Amino acid sequence: MEKVEVNSLFAESLECPSCNAFYDPPIFICQNGHSLCHRCTKISKPCPLCRVPLTQNFRNYTLEKILEQITVPCKFAGCTKSITLFERSNHLKDCKFSDNLNCIECASSEEDLILHLIKTHDYKEIVMQDTGGLRSFSGPQESWMRDTEWPKGVWKFGKSNLVVRALSSSGIFHVYLYRIEREPVSIKLSLESEDIQFGFKGKLPHISDYQEKSPEPHFNCDVNLLLEKFVKRHEDDEDILRLWIKVSK
């Protein structure tokens, strides 16, 4: 059967309603007939359109057959190949012109790393003002006294997207930051009390520079010092201790 080039208007009807990207087979359907790509089926409960429970027992083979017959050009500049929508996901991961980024959690090559981190690895998206703002890390007192991995986030900071990880280890609080865009990003993190202030100021490395075995933190502080000088009790729950860090350019 002859393969068909797809126009942009028709292409919109071939996008997964959960991630707004082309369907990535295998494709599954909910009890009401809504289709989702396999990645969103794993992480979306229930169906984002009708809220009924999802199951991977029901495949949309008809839509998968359609994807096998429709071709689109590769999205990467310099690549002249046209591939079927069924093959698109694998091609984009292996294309020599790819500008995909590897996930720092699972090392997979991702077309949309931010969406992948949020949906697959529970990163929280936080929109900040262009000039910065305050970010907090909160938890019960025992979480500050033991080794803890704090909730991870993607900070949308003006035109920049920053991947942020924080953890407490051996009595030291660490913050790791990486930029997703290629353009250089400088940032300042600061803590201030009545008699002491310190922090980090400098250019952030690109996320492709992440070294899984021994990444270098950009902000370090003794947990006991934080508890003594900077950590405050949550205004709505006295059992929760909160650390505020000022973020600016």
Automatic annotation (TrEMBL):
SUPFAM superfamilies attached to this UniProt entry: RING/U-box (SSF57850), TRAF domain-like (SSF49599)
Residues annotated as domain RING-type: 16-51
Keywords: Metal-binding, Zinc, Zinc-finger
Protein name from the UniProt record: RING-type domain-containing protein
InterPro entries: SINA-like_animal, Sina-like_RING, Znf_RING, Znf_RING/FYVE/PHD
GO MF assignments: ubiquitin conjugating enzyme binding; ubiquitin protein ligase activity; zinc ion binding
Domain of life: Eukaryota
Pfam family, one: Sina_RING
GO biological process terms on file: proteasome-mediated ubiquitin-dependent protein catabolic process; protein ubiquitination
GO cellular component, one term: cytoplasm
